[in-house]
Amino acid sequence: MPWKETCQMDERTQFIARVLAGEDAMTTLCREYGISRKTGYKWLGRYRCDGAAGLRERSHAPSRHGQAHDVAVVQAVVNLRTLKEATATPPADSGPAQQQRFDDFRAVSNNERPHEALGQKTPASLYEPSPRPYPDRLTEPSYGGDVAVRRVRSNGQIKWAGELIFVGEALIPAFARSEPVGVAETQSGDWLVRYAEVELGYIHPQRRRLSLRPIRGTNRPLDLMEIAAAIPTTPQAHQPQHP
Q1: Which of 150, 182, 191, 241 has the lowest CB atom count within 10 Å?
Q2: Are residues 39 and 111 in the same domain?
């Protein structure tokens, strides 16, 4: 039946409390209270914007502050159910039945229930598909003919000049696909490694890993690791001295 003339505020408060508590679907509650779903969402939107004051009939007199709440509505907010409570308390008897509950909840949330953050509009009414296609598989980066291509191994290394060089963990193969990196010589004689257009670093032959800075052709001071790497680890042959 429609809102009772003698206690419209009580009827609307009770209606909002039951909506927030998630007792029944919006369609069921609107049918029980004899109102359309449009009217039900209108009062729900007013409550969310203005609190309990929004449930009163509009007038030229100023309404109470939006933070003022009636006791019944406050209690309903305290008992507001989450998705888990609304769909899985108690859980369904089977996996398919539980999934159906989730699907129904999502359908109502996206297509029927207005959202305050969206100006009381539904997400479905504002959704626009992206014009950019989403490929099932990304194409591999391509490199020019003057760039050597190496595949990153499962340990994050590539094979270069007979040595294994660690380039990082981000390109470790996933789903049995090894990622290709390009290695190109710079004008100073360094070997720059990049993935597509992203520069990863310069091959450091002593460290057997990448350096963020060029190795050759600079006058910068060496750091301790580079100095240690440059020290021979095998005895040097004695050079005869000539008078």
Answers
A1: 241
A2: yes
DSSP annotation of 66 reads T
192: in domain: yes
Q: Is the bond into 90 cis (omega within 30 degrees of 0)?
A: yes
State which amino acid sits at residue 48: R
Shared-domain flag, residues 9 and 55: yes
pTM beyond 0.90: the answer is no
Overall domain count for the chain: 2
3-state helix/strand/coil string of 158-189 = EEECCEEEECCCCCCCECCECCEEEEEECCCC
Tell whether 57 is covered by a domain: yes
Q: 159 and 110, same structural domain? A: no
Side chain identity, residue 141: P
Q: Tell me how far the alpha carbon of residue 230 is from its chain's centroid.
A: 45
Choose the final residue of a domain: 79, 105, 121: 121
CB 201 within 8 A of CB 185: no
Contacts of 114 (CB under 8 A, 6+ apart): 41, 44, 45, 120, 121, 122
- Return the structure tokens found at 238: 């004695």
Residue-wise pLDDT tens digits, 181-212: 999 998 888 899 999 999 999 998 777 788 88
SS3 105: helix
Q: Which residues form the domain of 190?
A: 148-227
Q: Calculate the alpha carbon distances from 72 to 12, 80, 103 in Å.
A: 11, 12, 30
